[in-house]
Design a protein that fits this description.
Number of helices: 18
Number of domains: 3
Number of strands: 18
Oligomer: single chain
Radius of gyration: 24 Å
Distance between the termini: 59 Å
CATH class of the largest domain: Alpha Beta
Largest sheet: 7 strands, parallel
C-alpha cells in the first residue's frame, strides 16, 4: 500500500507492505522499483483527492506493475477506481493530448505575461468594501503547519468588525478559518497533470474565470494574495477591478524549488511570473528584513514593501491550555517539544543528534527526559534514521501529523520548546519568520532557539529564550541541558516571551499593520 495522504488510513494484513509516497518516489528514481515488479497480490494508493493526482499515468503504470492481480487507488472522500487497461488507455490519451499542446500553451503563457504593465496601474482603495483573499498554492490536503496558521491568522482578523468579512477564494479548504468568511473552492482542471508545472501555469485561467464569477461586478476593497509558484491571478484580478494588489511574499518560490524542492523545468518562465507579481503589486508584505533586502536589490521600490513578521493568536496558544491528557500518555519528568512540517530548514535532524548526545553524556536523563516530535514531513525519514542510530526508540515520541487546532494541546504537554532552525545551505540569509516561534512564545514555555537572523531579533538570549549556535548539535545539546537543569529559568524565560508576543506579535496587530500601510499609500 502506498500512502500519499497521512490522513487516509486503512487496516492492513500482517504481511502487507506499507510505503510512504516519498519512499515510492525514491524507489522509482533509483530504479529499485524493478525488484518489486509483479511481486504483490494487490497494490493500492491512498490519496487526498483522486482529481488532484499529479503524474496519473506514471502512477497508474507503477501500481499496475507492482501487482500481479489487482491495482487501485482511492481517496479521503471514499472515491475508488480500479486501474484497468481501459483506464490506462484513457490516461495515455490525456497525456498525448497534453504533450501535443505543450509548445503552443507555453507560447501563450509568454504572450500573456507580455501584456502586463511593468509597474502597478492606478487603482482606488475603498476599505468599506470587502477584501478578497486568494490562496493558490499547489499544496493540497494540508491539516497543519506555518502556512495554515498564517492564512487563518490574517483571514480571521480581516473578518473582525467593523470591517466586512473577506471573500476567500482557495483551491483547498484551510483549517481553523472563521465560519463567517464566505469561502469558495476553485479546483484546477484535469489538464497537464502529467506535466505538473504546466498544470500550475494553466490554473491561472481557471482561477481567474471562477474568481470573477464569485466576486461579481462590485469591486472589492483590495486583492490579497499569498504568492505561490507560477500564479498571477492576483495581478489579473487587480487590473480587472482596478483595486490594489497586496502580495504576501514569503520568499522566492523559484529559490525554494531550486534549494529545497526539485529543479524547475521552466524556471525562466516561473521567475518572470514571480517578478511580474512583485512589480505589479501595490503593497508587498514580507515576513523578514532579508526578504526586503532581496527585493530592493531586484529594483522593487522600498516604499511599497512592509516588513511584517508572523504572529499568533494568544488566546488559542496560551499557558492556560490544558495538555494533561497528552502528557499522561508521555509520562516522563521533562518533555522537550518540537512542532513542524519537518522542512529542510527546520533542523529537526540536528535536534535528534543533540538529544542523542545529551542522553549519551547524561545517562540519568534516559528515564526522565523525552523528546516529543510533533508533526510530519519531508525530512522525517532522516530524522527517524538519526533516532535509530542513537538508539532512541524509548526516548523519542513521533506523533505524525496533528490537526492545526490540536497543536496547542500538544505544546502544552511540553516543558521546553525547541526551534533548531539551520542556515541556508547556499550561504544566503535565513529569510524565515517561523510561526512556531510565536506559538512557543505565546505558550509561556522555556524556549531553546537558533540564533539566526529574525529569530535572534525576536528573542533575546537569557531574557526570552536560550539561544544557541544554528546547526551546531553540541551548542543545542548544551542549551537543552541548561533548561532541563533550571526550572526557574524556564519559567522566567517563558513569562518574558509571552509578554513580548502579546505586545508585538499577535495576528491582530499583524493584520492591522497591513491595513494601516495600505491606507498610508492611498492618503
Amino acid at each position: 500500500m502506498i500512502q500519499h495522504d497521512p490522513a487516509c488510513q486503512k487496516e492492513l494484513s500482517p504481511n502487507a507492505k506499507k510505503l510512504s509516497f516519498h519512499e515510492l518516489k525514491s524507489l522509482v528514481k533509483s530504479w529499485r522499483i524493478l525488484f518489486h515488479c509483479f511481486r504483490y497480490r494487490e497494490a493500492a494508493l491512498l490519496t487526498y483527492d483522486l482529481s488532484l493526482l499529479s503524474k496519473p499515468l506514471l502512477l497508474a503504470l507503477t501500481l499496475k506493475g507492482l501487482s500481479f492481480r489487482k491495482a487501485y487507488w482511492s481517496d479521503r472522500k471514499g472515491n475508488y477506481q480500479t486501474i484497468t487497461i481501459r483506464l490506462l488507455g484513457a490516461l495515455f490519451w490525456q497525456w498525448a493530448q497534453d504533450f501535443l499542446q505543450k509548445k503552443s500553451f507555453l507560447k501563450s503563457m509568454v504572450q500573456t505575461l507580455e501584456t502586463f504593465p511593468k509597474r502597478p496601474r492606478q487603482t482606488q482603495l475603498d476599505l468599506s468594501r470587502r477584501p478578497v483573499y486568494l490562496r493558490t498554492d499547489f499544496c493540497f490536503g494540508l491539516q497543519s503547519g506555518g502556512s495554515i496558521g498564517h492564512i487563518a491568522g490574517v483571514l480571521n482578523h480581516l473578518a473582525l468588525a467593523p470591517r466586512q468579512p473577506p471573500l476567500f477564494l482557495t483551491n483547498d479548504p484551510i483549517p481553523t478559518t472563521s465560519s463567517n468568511i464566505e469561502t469558495y473552492i476553485i479546483r484546477p482542471e484535469r489538464r497537464f497533470w502529467d506535466f505538473i508545472e504546466l498544470s500550475s501555469f494553466a490554473f491561472n485561467a481557471t482561477f481567474f474565470k471562477k474568481a470573477v464569477e464569485y466576486i461579481g461586478e462590485n469591486s472589492p476593497s483590495f486583492i490579497y494574495q499569498r504568492y505561490s509558484l507560477n500564479n498571477f491571478s492576483g495581478v489579473e484580478l487587480s487590473q480587472r477591478y482596478r483595486v490594489p494588489l497586496v502580495l504576501e511574499y514569503n520568499g522566492s518560490e523559484v529559490w525554494v524549488s531550486r534549494n529545497w524542492g526539485g529543479a524547475l523545468k521552466y524556471e525562466k518562465l516561473s521567475q518572470n511570473i514571480e517578478r511580474q507579481n512583485l512589480h505589479s503589486a501595490n503593497l508587498i508584505v514580507v515576513v523578514s528584513q532579508p526578504l526586503k533586502d532581496e527585493l530592493t536589490t531586484l529594483g522593487i521600490e522600498s516604499s511599497k514593501i512592509l516588513v511584517n513578521p508572523n504572529g499568533v493568536n494568544p488566546e488559542i496558544y496560551s499557558p492556560s491550555v490544558n495538555g494533561s491528557r497528552i502528557r499522561e500518555k508521555i509520562g516522563s519528568t521533562i518533555v522537550l517539544g518540537f512542532i513542524g512540517t519537518f522542512g529542510k530548514w527546520h533542523g529537526a535532524e540536528v535536534l535528534v543528534d543533540s538529544f542523542g548526545q545529551l542522553l549519551q553524556e547524561n545517562p540519568g536523563y534516559k528515564k526522565n527526559v523525552k523528546l516529543f516530535m510533533i508533526g510530519d514531513g519531508l525530512t522525517m525519514p532522516l530524522v527517524k534514521k538519526k533516532a535509530a542510530e542513537w538508539n532512541l526508540s524509548e526516548s523519542v515520541i513521533f506523533t505524525g501529523t496533528v490537526p492545526q487546532d490540536q497543536g496547542p494541546l500538544y505544546l502544552a504537554a511540553c516543558d521546553i520548546l525547541v526551534s533548531p532552525h539551520v542556515p541556508n545551505r547556499d550561504g544566503s540569509a535565513f529569510f524565515g519568520s517561523p510561526t512556531k516561534l510565536f506559538e512557543y512564545m505565546a505558550m509561556g514555555k522555556g524556549i531553546v532557539a537558533s540564533s539566526l537572523n529574525q529569530i535572534s531579533e525576536i528573542l533575546r538570549h537569557d531574557d526570552s529564550a536560550w539561544m544557541v549556535t544554528p546547526g551546531d548539535s553540541k551548542s543545542l545539546k548544551n542549551g537543552l541541558k541548561t533548561l532541563i537543569e533550571d526550572p526557574a529559568k524556564r519559567e522566567r524565560l517563558g513569562r518574558t516571551a509571552r509578554q513580548e508576543v502579546l505586545r508585538h506579535h499577535t495576528w491582530s496587530s499583524h493584520t492591522q499593520k497591513i491595513l494601516d500601510r495600505l491606507q498610508d499609500l492611498y492618503t
